[in-house]
Design brief:
By secondary structure, the protein is an alpha+beta fold. It has helices at 20-38, 67-76, 79-91, and strands at residues 9-17, 44-51, 57-64, 97-99, 106-108. The chain has a single domain (9-108), classed as 2-Layer Sandwich (Alpha-Beta Plaits), CATH 3.30.70. The chain has 3 helices and 5 strands; from the N terminus they run βαββααββ. A hairpin with a 5-residue loop joins strand 2 (44-51) and strand 3. This is ABM domain-containing protein. Residues 20-76 form the ABM domain.
């Protein structure tokens, strides 16, 4: 089986929340933001929302074809309007959510190991 590196560029947004209800609300609010403000830009692939089973974390992983596509989005999108929508979404939650990113949440895939046979050279 081939080992591959998925092409693309990612923005990974990380929030701490105060429970499963807030997780669901945050995912719904951020999914709507993707639908209204992001998904129609060239190079946008998807937004995936991962929630921790203990109800305390939400990861929003936004996948782009390339860093250039993401940079074009940053340069040409209504960042001020989108950020205002994010603030409104956070204020509208019944619980508490806190961003956990310490810098710009930009990532590229360096390596991925896919399925295949077990190696015997251990």
């Amino acid at each position: 089986m081939r080992v591959s590196a998925d092409s693309g560029f990612y923005s990974i947004i990380d929030y701490t929340v105060d429970g499963p209800g807030t997780q669901r609300e945050l995912v719904e609010a951020f999914a709507e933001i993707q639908e209204r403000w992001v998904r129609f830009y060239p190079g946008y692939r998807s937004a995936r929302f991962h929630v921790s089973l203990d109800g305390t974390r939400v990861y929003n992983i936004v996948h782009w074809d390339s860093e250039a596509d993401y940079r074009h989005f940053e340069k040409t999108s209504d960042t001020e309007g989108r950020m205002a929508a994010i603030e409104r979404a956070l204020e509208g939650l019944s619980g508490k959510a806190e961003a956990r990113m310490t810098g710009l949440p930009h990532y590229a895939v360096l390596r991925e190991v896919g399925p295949g046979p077990q190696r015997s050279d251990a």
